């Protein structure tokens, strides 16, 4: 029977959820729903059955991320993954595209022109112990984000990785469990978002100017989550990974960061990414 590629829609979510369950990926149906709402996807279908997906997120004119590239086990090795990828890439035209590759996906992405530029570390623990929150230094203040912080948070997020994500920030401000902002001398300098994801909670995005700022934000966020499953995905060179390991959030996986196009050059003195939204969305 022939395979059809078409635009993914809400009606695919139940079967998409089954695909990640079969891979033992942690996504809940609600995580799929959020991913599709914020982005767009291509579905591969055979006899009415969803056998493959690839999603992408356009973050402004120049940058996009790509993820949830899956082909059902029995349909792998027949070129479907490549067709799905090509179809998504065609829609992204001149964007610089970033993804986080599993070992299974890396070969396919290399064939399509993606280049490895680093590693992300997935840190997590099943039952978080009691974490003592670091305390703000002089001139620093922590508070919960308000709806009218959206513009400033979007700017700090954009500065950290070049992706312009107002729709994501709006979604987080309305639906995340908690978004903490750090003010430094009265200006917002960074933020960390606690969300439900997968087996429990995920902290990310985490955006700050420095590692001590990120540790302050993350330790405060973790101090609310004792006894919970918690996950944080951080760039291997961010420095946060060592601190997370010492708190009992061990590194369980290290996907490869791959880029097609020009990688983002951080702005001197600007913000940095200390935690991803998700591996798929970046
Ligand atoms: C990665 C995945 C989507 C590939 O789908 P697929 O349909 O099996 O891939 P294709 O058959 O289209 O292969 C495309 C090309 O990549 C190559 N390729 C695929 N997997 C590869 C691998 N692990 N190493 C090297 N090359 C690989 C194939 O040889 C093929 O090249 P060819 O056309 O020159 O022979 C699929 O293996 C999968 O769903 N894996 C589990 C989920 C996953 O890890 N997804 C990636 C998330 S980042």
Automatic annotation (TrEMBL):
Residue ranges crossing the lipid bilayer per the database entry: none
Molecular function GO terms recorded: acyltransferase activity, transferring groups other than amino-acyl groups
Residue ranges of every copy of the N-acetyltransferase domain listed in the record: 3-138
Entry keyword set: Transferase
Gene3D superfamilies (alphabetical): 3.40.630.30, 3.40.630.90
Stored Pfam families: Acetyltransf_10, Acetyltransf_18
Classification via PROSITE patterns: GNAT
Official protein name in the record: Histone acetyltransferase
């Amino acid at each position: 029977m022939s395979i059809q590629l078409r635009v993914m829609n809400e009606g695919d979510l139940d079967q998409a959820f089954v695909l990640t369950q079969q891979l033992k990926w942690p996504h809940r149906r609600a995580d799929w729903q959020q991913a599709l709402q914020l982005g767009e996807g291509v579905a591969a279908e055979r006899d009415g059955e969803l056998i493959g997906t690839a999603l992408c997120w356009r973050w402004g004119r120049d940058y996009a991320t790509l993820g949830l590239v899956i082909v059902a086990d029995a349909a792998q090795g027949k070129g479907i993954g490549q067709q799905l990828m090509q179809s998504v890439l065609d829609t992204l035209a001149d964007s610089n595209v970033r993804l986080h590759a599993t070992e299974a996906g890396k070969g396919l992405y290399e064939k399509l022109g993606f280049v490895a530029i680093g590693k992300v570390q997935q840190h997590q623990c099943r039952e978080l112990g009691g974490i003592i929150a670091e305390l703000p230094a002089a001139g620093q203040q922590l508070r919960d984000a308000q709806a009218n912080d959206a513009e400033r948070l979007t700017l700090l997020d954009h500065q950290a990785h070049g992706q312009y994500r107002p729709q994501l920030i709006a979604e987080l401000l309305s639906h995340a469990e908690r978004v903490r902002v750090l003010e430094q001398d009265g200006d917002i300098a960074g933020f960390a978002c606690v969300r439900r994801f997968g087996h429990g909670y995920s902290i990310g995005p985490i955006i700050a100017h420095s590692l001590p700022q990120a540790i302050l934000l993350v330790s405060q966020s973790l101090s609310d989550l004792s006894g919970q499953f918690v996950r944080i995905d951080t760039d291997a060179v961010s420095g946060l990974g060592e601190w997370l390991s010492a708190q009992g959030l061990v590194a369980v996986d290290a996907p490869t960061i791959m880029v097609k196009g020009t990688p983002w050059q951080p702005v001197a003195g600007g913000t940095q990414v200390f935690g991803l939204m998700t591996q798929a969305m970046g």
